[in-house]
Amino acid sequence: MDENNINEFTELQPGTGLNGGKYIIEKKIGEGGFGITYKAIQSGLDRPVCIKEYFPAGRCVRDTYARTIHIQGMDQDKFEKYRQSFVKEARTLAGLRHSSIVEVIDIFDENNTSYMVMPFIEGRSLQAIVDKEGPLTYPEAVNYMAQITDAVGYIHERHILHRDIKPDNIMITADYKAILIDFGSAREFVEDKTQAQTSMLTHGYAPTEQYTTTSRKGSYTDIYAIGATLYFILTGKVPMEAAARITEHMPEPRELRPDLPEEANRTIMKAMQLKSSDRHQTVKEFMDDLRNIHPSEPGPAQATEAPKPSKQTVQAKTEAAPKAQQTVASSDVKPAGTKKNKGLIWGLVAALVVVVAVVVVMLVGGGDKETTSAAANAQTQYKEMAARCMSQISLGSTSNTQELLNAKALLDSIRSMEAQYGAEIPDVYNRSNELNAAIEPKLKQAAADWAEEGDNLMNEFKDYPKAIENYTLSLQLKEDPAVREKLEYAKNQK
Fold this sequence. Notes:
The structure is a single chain. With about 500 residues, this protein is of the alpha+beta class. The chain has three domains: about 5-120, Phosphorylase Kinase, domain 1 (2-Layer Sandwich); about 125-290, Transferase(Phosphotransferase), domain 1, CATH 1.10.510.10; about 310-494, no CATH class. It is built from 17 helices and 15 strands. The strands form five sheets. The chain has a six-stranded antiparallel beta sheet with strand order 1-2-3-4-8-7, with helices on one face. A three-stranded antiparallel beta sheet has the order 9-11-12. A two-stranded antiparallel sheet has the order 5-6. Strand 1 and strand 2 form a beta hairpin. Helix 11 (about 340-365) runs antiparallel to helix 13 (about 380-395), helix 13 runs parallel beside helix 15 and helix 16 (about 465-475) packs antiparallel against helix 17. The longest helix has 28 residues, at about 430-460. The radius of gyration is 26 Å and the shape is globular. The two termini are about 35 Å apart. The model is unreliable at about 1-5, about 185-200 and about 310-370 (pLDDT under 50).
């Protein structure tokens, strides 16, 4: 290939014909790590269409005259593997027929790559609407989500998960029709079975099981994202990401918007439970709850994330509690929300109850006897927490970061208990140093791996949104000023 014939443009230029002149490119309308999206005209019918071209950013160049793309910095096998995934997405969509799902009307190979063609949707995304106009009214939000849940129920019946439901992937037309787009992350699934799938997620809208490649996934995975999307369009705030909720309290929708109906608050919080079995299990259950047809019972809403400090505890900390007691009383202990950590959840809750009870006893006049008794009583919980922490450290890795995040949260709770009871029974409350020595190398390695992947996405593919996700996860594992600087740069580029 003559280097002088390499186009300075990566995208196809206006007026370019594709598929024998059947489609004429008008303009580029979007670009991601693995593709370029164009608005085009279908010549025979004179109608606008949307064409998506497989074009790995930073890994291809385009011949000026022939428009053929050539691989650069990527081996042929990998190029073909991703191209086949692109084609599979098109075929998946081509087989779906629903008024709220974008339809693929054509697929073809040309220019050494592949293309899919869809009707051009005139409208704006829910993300763009809320960004410009603020949160939606409750009736508007319910109307749009009812359309989307109907579409999601349709694909779930066909054993397909979307895996990337978010406001940016829901288009609203001029006649108030909601359409779900971008099935690039969609995968076939067997309900509640462990399957090896690529970890795909958008922070704030993805549940904990999407942070690993082999966690159990099912309809409840998309339901979490539906609840998170409703949270955003009603409050204007992106929900706290699932990984962070293990150790921090996420404000409920009514805390941000007090005028919301109770059923909205209740339904969103149930859909966004960290533990998948505590969520709605079908989209019909979700909508029946939202419409008050079959209201859900108040579940363990905060049992899978940090409890909010009570007013009594806050007052006690500010008025009288010694420093060590303040640390324990304010230690937002959050058990992990995965099914296999059920014992951990109740162990952590029990430990927190014991610790706070000791603080209260001391504040109302309890003496050394009560403190020693509480320390002795809490030994079982402490030992169980330490054992589970070590187990999760052993399972944790770059591809299984949720275990490391859970272990990290547990270690913080273990240190709090040591601050409270260590002076009384030092031979028991002394595991934190050992656990820290075991987790630190893994945290450091996983954080470095995620940051490196972020570098590749940003520098080679120019996929800034995905780079932001990788850098954010890296910082959750291990704070690093250099990575934080890259995160800010990627956000500015986005």
